[in-house]
Write a structure and sequence with these properties.
- It is built from nine helices and ten strands.
- By secondary structure, it is an alpha/beta fold.
- The strands form two sheets. It has a six-stranded mixed beta sheet with strand order 6-7-8-3-9-10, with helices on both faces. It has a four-stranded antiparallel beta sheet with strand order 2-1-4-5, covered by helices on one side.
- The longest helix has 18 residues.
- It is globular and about 50 Å long.
- The model has no long low-confidence stretch (mean pLDDT 90).
Length: 254
């Protein structure tokens, strides 16, 4: 039996801003419907990696292959013809001037030119999927707690039934109980969609709740990848320092 080719292939990706190299010889293969989590220190290029896949940043060199298509230099809209993307931004990034229903439906009405009535129906279904009452639909983000805002952001991220969902620090600023709820909802929604998930996080509890595999980013490349079980057993000093929060080790603290 032959195994299926990776859904996402990133080969020797390089990205620099002026003389500052962010990604250097960055390579990873991610399978369809896999939940892959990237960890690493602040400013190591985790967000840059996501933005290169989405087309928000152009790679200097290397290859990004999505479902067999070379998308390295395609515009974001052209990439959406190959696979639908969803994104849960750090902090939620909801539109303050739009109510909850309009926020969740935004990608449907603006990105897919869907009628407002059809978009409303789908938006209400997604609001229910993140276990919020339809009563919040007419409220505005400022009227909701941080945890509820994060659920709305998740509903918006899954509204278009994306093939790939990116999560940027999904539990930042949330208490442990609310974080646990968000992690559970992320896992549930990703599995129901059959989506491929790529998450960047510093939250070890979140990682353990949602990851199929983990990659540690250091000096522009992934220096270790494995399952959560393998992460706990590895003697890699970089991994051990990061997951245990040790001040002493190969990572320097400035």
């Amino acid at each position: 039996m032959t195994s299926s080719p990776p859904y996402i292939e990133v080969n020797s990706l390089h990205k620099a801003f002026s003389k500052k190299v962010i990604l250097h010889d960055f390579s990873i293969n991610i399978n369809k419907s896999e939940s892959f989590v990237v960890i690493g220190g602040s400013g190591t290029g985790k967000s840059v990696f996501i933005k290169c896949i989405m087309g928000l940043l152009k790679a200097d060199s290397g290859k990004i292959i999505l479902n067999g298509h070379d998308i390295t230099y395609l515009a974001p809209n052209d990439r959406q013809q190959i696979a639908r993307f969803g994104m849960l931004f750090q902090g939620g990034a909801l539109f303050d001037s739009l109510n909850i229903l309009e926020n969740v439906a935004f990608g449907l009405t603006h990105g897919q030119n869907m009628t407002k009535e059809k978009a409303k129906k789908i938006a209400l279904e997604k609001i229910d999927a993140v276990e919020l009452s339809s009563k919040v639909a007419d409220l505005y983000p400022a009227e909701l707690s941080g945890g509820m805002q994060k659920r709305v952001a998740l509903a918006r991220a899954i509204a278009t039934n994306p093939d790939i969902i990116f999560f940027d620090e999904p539990t930042t600023g949330l208490d442990p109980i609310v974080s646990g709820k968000i992690n559970a909802l992320i896992s549930k929604c990703v599995k129901e969609l059959g989506a491929t998930a790529i998450t960047i996080t510093h939250d070890m509890h979140s990682l353990r709740a949602i990851a199929d595999r983990v990659g540690l980013l250091f000096e522009g490349k992934l220096i270790w990848t494995g399952t959560v079980a393998e992460m706990d057993k590895t003697d890699n000093p970089y991994v051990q320092q990061f997951i245990n929060g040790n001040p002493e080790g190969p990572f320097t603290v400035e």
